[in-house]
Amino acid sequence: MAGLLMGASAWAQDSYTTLYEKTLSGGTAWTADDITGWSGTTTKLSINASYGLYYSSQNTDNAYKAFTIKKNSKIKYEITWYFGGAVGRTSNYEYLQFGDNLRIGHMSYNKDNPGGVYLSTNAGTSYESTTIFAENYNTRYTKDLTIIFDTSTGEVESFVFDGTDVTSRISGALSGTFNTLYMGFTRGGSVSWDNPHGLVALKVSECEQTITNADYTVNYVDGVGNALKTAAVRTGVVGNYISLLGTDKDPIWVDTDADDVVDTKFIYVSDNASTTEITGDGTASCNVVFNVAPTYSYSFKTSFGTTLASGSTLSGETVSIAIPRYVMNSGTFYVYASAANNITYSKSMTVTSDNQEETVSYNDTGYDNVVYFAEAEDITGMTRSNEGQGGARSSMCYGAYATDNVTVTSLPAGKYTLTAYICGNSGTTFRFYAGSTSNEIYNIATTGSLTSGTSTEFNLTEATDIIIGAAGEAAKLIDFIYIQKTAEPVTVTDAGMATYVNSTYDLNFSETDIKAYKVKVSTKGTATLTKVDEVPAGTPVLLVKDGGATESIPVMAGAAAVTENDLVVGTGAAVPTTDGAGNTNMILNKVGGNVGFYFANGQTVATNRAYLHIATTLAPDAASARMAMVFGDETTGINAVQGSGVKVNGSEAVYNLNGQRVAQPTKGLYIVNGKKVLVK
Question: Whole-structure pTM over 0.90, yes or no?
Answer without folding.
Answer: no
